[in-house]
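Q: What structure does this chain adopt?
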Amino acid sequence: MWPKSKARNKRKDRESVLDVKMRSRDIRAWRIRALAAAVGVIGGTAIGAVLVWQAYQYTLLHFVYRNEAYAIRRVELRHEGRIRPDQLQRWSGIQLGENLIALDPNRVRHGLELNPWIERADVECRRPGTVLLTVHERDPITQVVVWRLDRQDGRAWPETNLIDAQGWVLPPLRADWLKPGADADFGHLTRLVGLDNAEIVPGQNLRYPGLREGLSLVRAYEASSMYSLVDLEELDLSKAEAPVGRLRQGTVVVFGTSDFERQMRRWRSIHDFSVEQGRQLDWIDLSVTNNIPARWRARPDTTPAPPRTPKPKRTPKPHV
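A:
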C-alpha cells in the first residue's frame, strides 16, 4: 500500500479563512460608518446653511427693508432743461416712502433714459433717505418734417421731429412735460430735407448718408458769427458729398463736407463784402477750396423781409 500522507492541520486553515472574513466585515462596517458620518456632516452643513440663510433673510427683511429709518423722504434733482422736475420723478419710478436700500439704481436710470429727451441719468443713494438724480437732456439742433399715417382710417398728418447733434430723433415736447415759462419753440432750427426713404423714428439714432457731416455743419454754423447774421432755414442732404443750404433771404449756399470752421470764416468775409457793396448773393459754393464761385442777384430784392425768428444764443453744453 501507498504510504499515508501526513495529516494536515485543517484547524489552522479554518482559522485563516475566518480571519479573512472578519477583516472584510470590519472594512465594510468602517466604510458604512464613514459614509454615514460624511452624509451627516454634509446634511448638517446644508441644514445649518439653510437656517443661517433664512435667519439672514428674516433679519434683512424686518430690520433693513421694512425699517422706517431707510424710507426715501427726499428726491434731490440736478437738472438744467425744459422738463418739469415732477415729470422726471414720475419717469424714474421713485416713490416717497419706499426703502432706499431696496432701490435699484439701474432700474431708475433705465426708466429715465427710456424717454428720448433724456441723454443720460445718474442715480446716487444717500443714506438714510435721500436719492440724488442728475439728469442731462438732449439739445436739438435741427428739425425734420415727417408724414405720419394712421393705417386704420388712412389719415395722414405732418409731424415735426427734432434731431440732436448725435443724430437721435426726438418727438415733439408735450405741453404737460414743460416747466412754466420754458421755451419749446424750435421753429428757428435748420430744417433737414432730402432724407428720402429714411426711417425717422423717435427714440432711435438716425442713419443716413451725409447726415453726420450735415449735423457737424449745423453745429459749426451755430458756433460761428454767421448764426446771428443769416438764417439757415433749410439743408438739403440728398447729395451727401455736397449739402446745399437755403437761407431765409433765398440765397443758396453749397457746402463742403469738411473743415466747416474755415467755410464759416470765408462765408463771413463774403457776407461783409456784399453788405459793403450793397449787393445780394444769389448763389455761392463754399465747397471749392480756392476762388470761390458766386453769383450776384441782378437786382437787389427790395421786398421787406419777414421778421426774423428769435434765436437763442448757443452755448457749449457743460461736461459733467
